[in-house]
Design goal:
263 residues
Amino acid sequence: MHRAIKKSLWLTVSLAVVLVLLLAGPAYMLASQRVVLGGVWSQADRSSAELAPAPSAHPEALVQVYAARAFDWRGAFGVHTWIATKPADAMHYQVHQVLGWRRPTVTSRPDVPDRTWYGSAPALLTELRGKAAERAIPEIREAVAAYPVTDRYRVWPGPNSNTFVAWVVRRVPELQVDFPPTAVGKDYLLNSIVAEAPSGTGYQVSLGGGLLGLTVAYDEGVEWQLMGLTLGVDITRPALKLPGIGRLGMASSEHTRGAGEAE
């Protein structure tokens, strides 16, 4: 009897500790006002962050992957990601992303590639230039068209905008993305429990749409997925990965390939 009580108490304490670890980061983001609450969509900033070169000044092909804090309270937990492509000599970018308020959710249309995401400045996660981008763009289009859940969207644990971008990345060998730990939904694997890590440098196991999982890769390091959120440690570029907060330590690697690289 006493042994059963002790075991039950240990499990309760363990669950409490896990919940504190998972929610402390988002709580800090809210308490520190690093995430703006109560904003109005129609009034939020959607201007260019001036991270992407103008097509007229950059004739070579280009692929970019961006992430920005989600709007309102969602930003305390995670980011929104999208892909921008520009074929050689094209005069505009095509932006591919999932929008939760649309059906079908996937949209691919000419747009400003580096727009501020409703008040949140974007960060460039990876970039392909020249021949590498030329090879990747047709594959990106095919992967976007093949995304199998265009009628479904859930903020948590997915499928969401990060699920979509991770789906595309895994199907385009040229793209190697070390997603931030705040990309909630990146570990939601569709029709599988084992997959190559989005960086292409390791593998992951994911159960229940990312509710429980493990990623081990050179770029990502070791990441544990618990309740759809990520805890981890990066050894090659020392950093902790925390829910809500993101990386604490060195910046993640950025994969940039240009026309001058080996074919």
